[in-house]
Amino acid sequence: MMKFADKKVFISGGATGIGEAAALLFAQQGAIVTIFDRDIENGERCLQRILNEGGRGIFISGNLIYPDEVEKAVEESLNAFGGIDILINNAGVESPYSVHEMPVEEWDRVMAVNLRGMYLMAKAVIPIMKKSGGGAIVNTASISGLLGWPVSAAYCVSKGGVIQLTKQMAIDYAQDNIRVNCIAPGTTLTPLIERIFQQEPEPEKAKQQISQMHPLGRFAQPEEIAQAILFLASEDASFITGAVLPVDGGYTAK
């Protein structure tokens, strides 16, 4: 049985990495998927994979730091499918700076994507969910929102904000039958992380060191994080809201 048959799922940052893996899994479970991303090439590629497997969905290009583009994308998805049952707030960026080295513009960029973008997406989608009688939101945070991580000041702060926004929204919208949860992945082998490692003087050595920091001794695959997203969005998690689920190979248990 398909757990998400005919559910309308909107995924920000759905073109690559965790978002792409989630889009494919939702589609395989019968969902109708809207992929929203500024990466047109990979967004269209992800959609084509869904369609090739017999799934349903659309790709909408846009940048979630701009309210008008968010509102336009949500409206287009609503017009196409008649509703939004599940929002996966996944888009995010990294930033390799400590506080004293970070340009103010870089701080603002990270906050605009990682935190303000989640607010804008939720602001646009929640009225639709309220009108239809409920829904589920899953935000992508990070273990960096639960603990410190070297040379990642804005990233840590933004992901900590995602966690608190999740808890606050869970309280506000419980009465509307809208559940709000977030995942906190450990290091996951997405294209973004691969690019970061390639900037190191010894990429393979850096990868080995970071992977061994996780008690399971390896990185996560995007599909493993996506499975956790699907769980929190599903009826199997019907009594879970305001939760932060680490999917981190034991990192935060140390």
TrEMBL record:
Q: For this protein, what is the EC number?
A: 1.1.1.385
Which SUPFAM superfamilies does UniProt cross-reference here? NAD(P)-binding Rossmann-fold domains
One example of the protein's molecular function in GO is: oxidoreductase activity
Q: What InterPro entries does the record tag this protein with? A: NAD(P)-bd_dom_sf, Sc_DH/Rdtase_CS, SDR_fam
Q: Which Gene3D superfamilies does the annotation name?
A: NAD(P)-binding Rossmann-like Domain (3.40.50.720)
**A Pfam entry, by short name:** adh_short_C2
Keywords for this protein: Oxidoreductase
Q: What class of enzyme is it?
A: oxidoreductase
Q: Which PANTHER family match?
A: DEHYDROGENASES, SHORT CHAIN, ESTRADIOL 17-BETA-DEHYDROGENASE 8-RELATED
Q: Which family does it belong to?
A: Belongs to the short-chain dehydrogenases/reductases (SDR) family.
Query: What is the name listed in the Swiss-Prot or TrEMBL entry for this protein?
Result: Dihydroanticapsin 7-dehydrogenase
User: What broad taxonomic lineage does this protein's source fall under?
Assistant: Bacteria, Pseudomonadati, Atribacterota, Atribacteria, Atribacterales
